[in-house]
Design a protein that fits this description.
single chain; MetI-like fold
Length: about 550
């Protein structure tokens, strides 16, 4: 066994040990899945889901709420993109433009301070889950779609802004260097030499985040922020699983349609997706009942003032802080267990969902799966892709509500919800990584007469492994934030404490909880970035 193999064995052993430790620390009880009472409740749930309510008046109501969720997601994402672009430009260091402390010390210090502030704002915005912002805005502005739009705008601006800034800094510096050398200022350099290089990537990523925002919009109604979430919440609360089935089918349908539309728009010229995006945002602003006029009225400013006062003076009670820190560690443990379970499952599903392994081969004269072989592979490919689509289409909070019916409220339901949703996300990413592998090595192995398993194991998997590990680490970072969200519906972790603090308007307690969350999220992000860079470099 060489040094690399020994290192992989040690890493595998550490991962297994860490999952066992995290499971013990968080209190996950997978045995609850086999509980007889839980199976009875799960049977009732499945029976209701298999018989959706298709009455005319209810279908019309679901249709109206689906359109509302769609418009909430589009308008929220549009506001997020505008805010993200501004913050990203402030946070990024332009290619080929370096500060000269000796020549302009005040300007250099100011630029550094602006960058640091913008990066801090982006980190804070993306560290707080959108459901927390939505709940806060519901307390300030009342029920309706407005809080959901504002919540998505804030959280997604932090997520989008980080990538926008990274794309700016990674752009080819030569055009910027030439333009800056000719005497152009920073604004001109960005508009004419940097923006043309990153514009298409910005649009593609904005469309991807739009899909995520619409999924979020479909569930934020759980806290009173409009959209399909309010119907999902009512259906679960009153055990009306037939109505729940109709609402979930609506979520699944428009997420699938949106994904297909997003693929088409990403392939089109940038003007088309920008035009469609802008039209949707205008329609959302015109149709949705958004309390624009209340943003700066006295009542709202008083609420914001109380919020900021609490944040400027967080609680210092040591018992509360100790308990909050333990909840943060439990939340991280939940995210880690869920991510590893999902990664193992996605690793099995990804090859089955990749066309190269099911329908095609790597040789030019490969039979491409004719006859019975084609049908056998089709029976593998289609179910795998449907499984990945369904698991990622339904948000984590929906899965949490479903698992609460099965195993009861608590940590186990939260971990299972995160794991199932993450299977769909990682399965899709893993499948893409396998499809994009360099065809030379697997073609040579296939030409030697080796079977599909050997071709995959020795020709494709080693190439895709670094990217797959990087995707897994990134998803773990996302799941740390998502683990705080599922607690809002009773699925354990930090979310339950956040929900209590907001409900009682204990702003000092909320400030302490969010500060701890921010520290942990930033630490996890920083560690994940370093590990991902090393993996991709190797």
């Amino acid at each position: 066994m060489n040094e690399r193999d020994r290192r992989r064995v040690w890493v595998g052993a550490v991962v297994i040990a860490s999952v066992l430790l995290a499971s013990w620390h968080s209190g996950v009880e997978f045995g609850a899945l086999a509980d007889s009472g839980g199976w009875a409740s799960f049977g009732e749930l499945v029976s209701g889901l298999l018989a959706p309510d298709l009455s005319d008046h209810f279908v019309a109501r679901i249709g109206a709420l689906a359109v509302e969720s769609l418009l909430i997601g589009v308008l929220g994402t549009a506001l997020a993109v505008v805010l993200a672009a501004v913050l990203a430009i402030a946070a990024a260091r332009m290619p080929a433009i370096t500060d000269d402390p000796a020549a302009r010390p005040l300007a250099t210090w100011t630029a550094s301070a602006v960058r640091a502030t913008a990066r801090g704002v982006l980190a804070f915005f993306r560290s707080v889950p959108e459901i927390i912002w939505a709940f806060l805005f519901v307390r300030v502005f009342g029920l309706g779609p407005g809080p959901a739009v504002f919540a998505i705008a804030i959280t997604f601006s932090g997520i989008i802004g980080k990538l926008f800034a990274e794309l700016i800094e990674a752009a080819d510096p030569e055009p910027a260097r030439r333009m800056h050398g000719s005497g152009a200022g920073g604004v001109a350099v960005f508009v004419f030499s940097v923006l043309p290089l990153v514009r298409r990537q910005w649009v593609a990523y904005a469309l991807f985040r739009l899909e995520c925002a619409i999924r979020s919009a479909s569930i934020l109604g759980i806290v009173g922020a409009g959209g399909l979430g309010q119907e999902i919440d009512l259906s679960m609360r009153y055990f009306q699983y037939d109505k729940l089935a109709t609402a979930l089918l609506a979520v699944l349908a428009y997420v699938v349609v949106l994904e297909l539309a997003s693929i088409a728009l990403r392939r089109a010229r940038p003007a088309w997706p920008i035009s469609v995006f802008a039209a949707g945002a205008i329609a959302g602003a015109a149709v949705l009942d958004i309390p624009w006029g209340e943003l700066f009225d006295d009542a709202s400013l008083d609420q914001v003032g109380a919020f900021l006062t609490g944040f400027s003076n967080p609680t210092t009670d040591w018992a509360f802080i100790e308990n909050a820190f333990d909840l943060v560690l439990v939340t991280v443990s939940m995210a880690w267990v869920a991510t590893v379970l999902a990664a193992v499952s996605a690793l099995a599903l990804a090859p089955m969902a990749a066309i190269t392994f099911t329908i095609r081969g790597y040789l030019a004269d490969a039979p491409h799966g004719h006859g019975w072989t084609w049908w056998l592979f089709l029976l593998v490919l289609v179910p795998a892709r449907i499984c990945l689509q369904i698991t990622r289409a339904l948000p984590e909070l929906v899965w949490a509500l479903l698992f609460i019916v099965w195993v009861g409220p608590g940590i186990t339901a939260g971990v299972l919800a995160l794991a199932v949703h993450t299977i769909g996300i990682l399965g899709r990413l893993y499948s893409d990584a396998l499809e994009e592998a360099e065809p030379g090595p697997p073609r040579a192995i296939e030409a030697s007469g080796a079977g599909p398993f050997a071709r995959y194991l020795y020709g494709v998997f080693p190439q895709a492994l670094p990217r797959m590990l990087a995707f897994t680490l990134f998803r773990f970072e996302v799941n740390v934030r998502a683990a705080a969200m599922v607690g809002f519906v009773g699925a354990g972790g930090l979310g339950d404490a956040l929900h209590t603090a907001i409900s009682l308007f204990h702003m000092r307690d909320l400030a302490a909880l969010l500060a701890l969350t921010l520290v942990v999220v930033v630490a996890v992000d920083a560690l994940g970035d370093r590990i991902r860079m090393r993996l991709l470099r190797d």
